[in-house]
Specification:
The complex is a heterodimer of chains A (176) and B (590). With 176 residues, chain A is of the alpha+beta class. Chain A has helices at 12-37, 39-42; strands spanning 50-56, 66-76, 79-93, 99-103, 114-116, 121-123, 130-131, 137-139, 151-153, 158-163. Mean pLDDT of chain A is 89; it is low at 1-7. Chain B has 590 residues and is mainly alpha-helical. Classes of the chains: A alpha+beta (176), B mainly alpha (590). At the A-B interface, α1 and β3 of A face α2, α3, α4, α5 and α10 of B.
């Protein structure tokens, strides 16, 4: 009897035949599984921000940010939920009456940014990035200012925001 | 004990061999004695191993997407089937490989039965094969209930009901979540299918390989018992070729046959004539063939006795060598197998000839297709059943058939009732409205409602005016989401004509009916508002008032149902009456 490693020569075809099974098994087991594992990578993502009405303009205050919850349609895999919470925005009224809107997601790693009333600064609770009221980075690890979102007053006295998310940690804004 | 070093190879290989002994193990596999010479009969085990690996890999892939909860289960399987990259193929492959594993294991056990390889000292290997067969059956049943569609739900309901009749079956049902088929039963079946049963199968397979290295492979019933050769290379080559062929067949079936479909989402209020999968069909047929009192019991007793018989074979069969001596022990199993198979085939043939059953299946397919169409637009958070309940073409049509179709005709169908209310085929379309104005007394309009001779033909208005009135009425029911091809100028003219010529008998936004005829209000006719009012309160002054002959449905429909039924009736405007398929006399068109 000869061990596996010594079979060869004219019996090479037997070895190939024997390998056909394991190879077929490997291919059949691997291909669909790899496709499914990679599915989220292969799937084209929607990158459109959505216009959402967040609340009444009467709630705004001058130079003092107010948080509002963004409720809108979320498509998550098979589910389309018309009224789910998408995020939080900080809103302020500028001296000229226009609305300034910042996403409350920290541009560093996405924690929810709060407001320090005494210092009149936005503060991230996770890594202590501090931002001025206009969004500039004052201190901390954030690579870019708070993400500003377009906001407008609607005819019926509400605030509409074009809500979007951006890739964290990088200096430029890249919508995700 | 000294470590046996490999025969050749580099230092890395020696290093690895030194620490694992894998090469030595492979050599011991290569030298497994194959009694009776290499042959295909020995290759079933290899095929089972290969299929098990394919099942594990595709199973993990499916687990990445599947969610074991009612509603979510159906939705996630829909997602796998229609959106995940090669998801439908992965699912088909998983199912086909599972069924193939059952067949290959059955062949393996069958061969062992006739080769007598349950005898000393191979009893444990025999029991392992039987155990694997049982585990695969359990995995197939639990796996096929996971999509939580109509078939899965009702099949499981019946299976648990049958289990109740068996000793221990009630406990099993309780453990799976009791009478309520919901979250508990689904997540427990998932844990069984995706964790417990695969672990058991892998353990049995590993144990089987270990035992084979110890006792070798037994000769088949007709081979030369004196011939013994090592596993490598000839049996290895046969195994390799056989595995290749089996997997190729599985691949082709999964790719080109629709093996893994998805029915409509499980609905506890909607009956479904569930039939079990082919491997359970014999038990179904057995139960159906026997009276109810013993049928459920027989489903437990017959396979139970078979299992006991097979498990006990190592002790029962003490006869001499040779097939003849074993035949009394093997033959009854074969006879039972064939009888059960014949029962199953007869039952399948009976279903195929049962028109009622086929109609129910066709209805279920239609519902499944519609559910899938709707899911493509996103499934709402309250689940696929709520999605269907808001769909005019599903819930609306169903309500129409229950509440309206007895008197009103639609698509050539109408109940047996005496009363023939207007036919709704193409209701609200331009052609339907024009037909009404030209000949209100026609049998498919008001000719057989008892309103006869109330409204004369409006041919006298002239063709152009008629077209204008039709356009105006059509525009009244137009909604923002409609395709929208309204001729506004024509419609405006139509409104003038209508105000001029129709208000003798009809109301229009509360005014008119100068002659006191009591004709319905034409304002908003035939919009959703008008239809909803007509369904809820046909005797209202805006509707047919004292003239009405229609029962009011306001009290027996929920608000949601009234909405969806109204939407369905309004949608008929987009379906022109089909040419040559008149439903004038209300009979099924030929």
């Amino acid at each position: 009897m000869r061990p596996v490693s010594e079979v060869g020569g004219r019996r090479a075809w037997l070895r190939w035949l024997a390998m056909a099974g394991p190879i077929a098994t490997g291919v059949l087991a691997a291909l669909p599984a790899v496709a499914v594992w990679l599915d989220p990578v292969l799937r084209p993502r929607r990158r459109r921000g959505t216009r959402v009405v967040v609340g009444p303009a009467s709630a705004l205050r001058d130079e003092h940010p107010v948080p509002m919850t963004v409720v809108g349609e979320r498509v998550d895999a098979w589910e389309r939920a018309p009224r789910s919470t998408l995020g939080v925005v900080w809103l302020q009224r500028r001296p000229d009456g226009s609305i300034l809107c910042h996403s409350a997601a920290c541009p560093h790693l996405g924690c929810r940014v709060g407001y320090d009333e005494r210092a009149r600064q936005f503060v991230c609770p996770c890594h202590s990035s501090r931002f001025a009221l206009d969004g500039r980075v004052l201190s901390g690890p954030s690579a870019r200012p708070l993400d500003e979102l377009p906001a407008e007053r609607t005819a019926d006295g509400m605030i509409a925001v074009r809500f979007a998310r951006f890739r964290p940690r990088i200096a430029t804004r890249e919508e995700i | 004990m000294s470590v046996q070093l490999p025969h050749r190879g580099g230092s890395l290989r020696r290093w690895f061999e030194d620490r694992t002994g894998l090469g030595a193990f492979l050599d011991s596999v290569a030298s497994i004695p194959v009694h009776g010479g290499a042959g295909i009969g020995h290759a079933f085990a290899a095929a089972a191993g290969a299929l098990l690996l394919v099942l594990l890999s595709t199973g993990v892939a499916l687990a990445l997407e599947y969610v074991p909860a009612p509603d979510e289960a159906w939705a996630s399987v829909w997602w796998i089937q229609h959106r995940v990259t090669h998801g439908a193929f992965t699912r088909a492959l998983h199912r086909t490989a599972g069924e193939a594993l059952l067949v290959v294991l059955a062949l393996h056990v069958g061969r062992a039965l006739f080769a007598g390889s349950y005898r000393r000292p191979r009893e444990v290997g025999w029991w392992l094969s039987l155990g694997m067969l049982a585990l695969v059956l359990a995995a197939l049943v639990t796996g096929m209930r996971l999509p939580w569609d109509q078939h899965a739900y009702w099949a499981l309901r019946i299976e648990l009901g049958v289990a109740e009749a068996l000793p221990g079956g009630g406990l099993l049902g309780q453990m799976l979540g009791g009478a309520e088929l919901g979250r508990t039963v689904l997540s427990r079946m998932y844990a069984l299918h995706a964790v417990v049963l695969p672990l058991g199968l892998v353990a049995c397979a590993a144990m089987g390989v270990w035992i084979a290295t110890r006792h070798g492979r037994v000769a088949g019933p007709h081979s030369d018992v004196t011939r013994v050769e090592p596993y490598w290379p000839r049996q290895a080559a046969v195994d390799g070729a056989f595995v290749f062929v089996v997997l190729l067949a599985v691949l082709l079936v999964a790719a080109f046959v629709e093996v893994a479909t998805l029915g409509s989402p499980a609905d506890p209020t909607r009956h479904h004539p569930a039939r079990p999968e082919w491997f359970l069909m014999p038990l179904y047929a057995l139960r159906a063939a026997l009276p109810e009192s013993v049928g459920a019991l027989a489903v437990g007793i017959v396979p139970g006795l078979l299992a006991l018989w097979l498990l006990a074979l190592p002790w029962l069969d003490r006869g001499g060598p040779g097939l003849r001596a074993r035949l009394p022990w093997a033959a009854p199993v074969l006879v039972l197998f064939c009888a059960m198979g014949a029962l199953a085939v007869a039952s399948v043939v009976e279903d195929a000839n049962d028109e009622e059953h086929q109609r129910a299946l066709a209805e279920e397919r239609r519902r499944a297709e519609r559910a899938s169409e709707l899911a493509a637009g996103g499934i709402p958070p309250d689940g696929p059943l709520a999605m269907l309940a808001r769909d005019p073409w599903t819930r609306g049509r169903e309500l129409y058939e229950q509440k309206c179709n007895g008197c009103h005709g639609l698509d050539g169908r109408r109940g047996e009732g005496e009363i023939h209310a207007p036919d709704h085929t193409g209701f609200g379309s331009r052609a339907w409205l024009l037909g009404l104005l030209l000949d209100p007394e026609a049998p498919h309009y008001f000719g057989r409602t008892g309103h006869a001779e109330q409204m004369p033909s409006q041919r006298r208005l002239g063709e152009e005016n008629l077209r204008a009135v039709v356009e105006f009425l059509y525009a009244q029911a137009e909604e923002p989401q409609d395709p929208g091809e309204i001729n506004a100028a024509l419609a405006a003219r139509g409104e003038r004509v209508l105000r001029d010529r129709c208000l003798g008998c009809h109301l229009f936004r509360g005014e008119g009916d100068e002659l006191g005829t009591g004709g319905p209000d034409l304002g908003l006719y035939p919009s959703r508002t008008w239809i909803a009012r007509q369904i809820a309160e046909p005797g209202a002054r805006t509707q047919y008032g004292a003239l009405h002959r229609m029962p009011a449905f306001g009290d027996e429909l929920t608000r949601e149902d009234l909405e969806v039924l109204t939407a369905f009736v309004r949608l008929q405007r987009f379906r022109e009456p089909r040419a040559g398929q008149s439903t004038r006399d209300g009979r099924e068109p030929r």
